[in-house]
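Support request, please re-run this one:
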Amino acid sequence: MAFCAYLFFKNGKMIFRAAGRVVDEIIMVLGYLVFEFFLYDAGCLASVPGNLIQGGANAVIGFCLISVLTKNKYLTKYCGVHNGKSNL
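Re-run finished. Output below.
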């Protein structure tokens, strides 16, 4: 998930960041599904709706936080962001 987020975030454009959040959360839901399959077999499918809600909330909150934090002039020196563009 983190590497995927990095690949989308380093472009710097808002559309790529939003797409990256969606892809990251799909990876999270699939990861939970595979892990829970080994614990619960077919019962793992019952947790997918809850994981999708969690992923959607994470995407929205993360996207908002990144948008706000990258515009803060005091945090940019710690985040590697200069002039609204990330060095990542």
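The chain has one domain: 2-86. Residues 15 and 73 are 23 Å apart (CA to CA).
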